[in-house]
Design brief:
The complex is a heterodimer of chains A (311) and B (87). Chain A contains ten helices and eleven strands. In chain A, the strands form four sheets. A four-stranded mixed sheet of chain A has the order 6-7-11-10. A three-stranded mixed sheet of chain A has the order 1-5-4. In chain A, strand 8 and strand 9 form a beta hairpin. Chain A is flat. In chain B, strand 2 and strand 3 form a beta hairpin. Classes of the chains: A alpha+beta (311), B alpha+beta (87). Chains A and B meet through helix 2, helix 5 and helix 6 of A and strand 1, helix 3 and helix 4 of B.
Chain lengths: 311, 87
């Protein structure tokens, strides 16, 4: 779907009030809703664009984020919707007519006349047919920890109907990833097959680790002494602690790369890296010796770290 | 097939009591489903789900009054019926 400007789609100014948005949406719904225009093949697509634009702008929060450039117009994309007109006119198993039962039958028997010519009558609305249908798909969400997502895990989940399922969370699972469990949805009707279950993973954020694609980012505090003199320190990774050499004279913000300590990419099989950003911290308690040393300290180079700010 | 509860969950704007009153007024016709004993509920075919969405658009977005809704729907139904006849 081409991403168009939602303001343009609704034909309103960027300064439009909530009331104006609603009014524009109503007008366009009347003009383009496919169920109100059954003969117009382009209506479904136009109405979908209109709905997407409205979804985005009707919520003040998403509208603010769109205006600020944080999300684009596809941020509110909706799944394909089947409109009523797709069913109302058909003659398949789902076809139905609401008109016939409501006392609006026309006196002129146009319908019988025409259907006699073209084909058999379509089923009346109230007629209960032999019903056979695939069961409904079920959707669940499963919160998992950051580490379960990065290294993979098996979890046993209990479905609402009481039966337990073993679920394999793949290595490097992503937030909002969907796992499909075939045939574990709602039972079918009249001998139809069961639907599928979809489990959406919700990865909880980690206190220290942050993920970016297949890489892990981590901020690690080092003492003043370790930073100035260099040291060998222990750093956590998603697969356990590793020893890392901090070079002498490492400043805050220096980033060290731990090769292949990130997440294994399931497609390429390659592991990402872990990036460790150092942060120099001063001693916790008072250090009179350090203070005394600094008082008498004559730096070899004069330094003004704020020079660029003040020039 | 979608149970009533799931349909109410799926459509953000839809209020349960509205849907129940539309069922009572025959604006939508779900299939009854017995869940053993006295609990009786409804399931909606895909076609009826789409019809409920249409009614939601008419009722909530276009703010068509409850009293006018059946009239609009019956006109639409006649339109669809006629179209399916002449097709």
């Amino acid at each position: 779907m081409p991403v168009t400007d939602p303001y343009e789609t609704l034909g309103i100014a960027r300064t439009a009030t909530a009331k104006e948005i609603k009014a524009a949406f109503r007008k366009l719904t009347r003009a383009h809703h496919p169920d109100l225009h059954p003969g117009d093949p382009g209506a479904a697509e136009r109405f979908r664009d209109i709905s997407v634009a409205h979804d985005l702008l009707a919520d003040p929060e998403t509208r603010r984020r769109f205006d600020a450039g944080e999300i684009d117009a596809s941020g509110a994309e909706r799944p394909q919707q089947r409109f009523y007109r797709d069913f109302a006119e058909g003659s398949g198993p789902g076809a139905s007519s609401h008109a016939r039962q409501e006392g609006f039958e026309s006196d002129v028997d146009l319908e019988d006349f025409l259907s006699g010519i073209f084909r058999g009558k379509t089923g009346g609305r109230r007629q209960q047919k032999e019903f056979r249908a695939r069961g409904q798909d079920a959707r669940y969400t499963l919160p998992i920890t950051f580490l379960e997502a990065t290294t993979g895990a098996t979890r046993t989940i209990t479905l609402p109907d009481g039966h337990a399922l073993k679920l394999t969370i793949p290595e490097g699972a992503e937030d909002r990833q969907l796992l499909r469990l075939k045939g574990q949805g709602m039972p079918g009707y009249g001998g139809g097959p069961a639907g599928d279950a979809y489990v959406e993973l919700q990865v909880e954020p980690h206190a220290f680790f942050h993920r970016k694609d297949d890489n892990i980012h981590l901020e690690v505090p080092v003492t003043l002494k370790e930073a100035v003199l260099g040291a060998r320190i222990e750093v956590p990774t998603i697969s356990g602690p590793v020893a890392v050499t901090v070079p002498a004279g490492s400043n805050t913000g220096r980033t060290l790369r731990l090769r292949e300590k990130g997440i294994r990419n399931r497609k390429t099989g390659l592991r990402g890296h872990q990036f460790v950003t150092l942060k120099v911290v001063l001693p916790d308690g008072e250090e009179p010796d350090l203070a005394k040393f600094l008082e008498g300290w004559k730096p070899a180079h004069t330094q003004n770290p704020r020079k660029e700010m003040l020039s | 097939m979608t149970p009533l509860d799931a349909l109410v969950d799926a459509i953000a704007a839809l209020r349960r009591e509205d849907l129940e009153s539309w069922v009572r007024e025959d604006l939508v016709a779900p299939l009854p489903q017995d869940r053993g004993g006295e609990t009786r509920t409804w399931v909606f075919t895909e076609s009826e789900c789409a019809r409920v969405r249409l009614i939601c658009t008419l009722r909530y977005d276009l703010e068509i009054a409850d009293e006018t809704l059946p009239l609009i729907l019956s006109l639409l139904d006649q339109l669809y019926d006629t179209r399916s006849c002449v097709r």
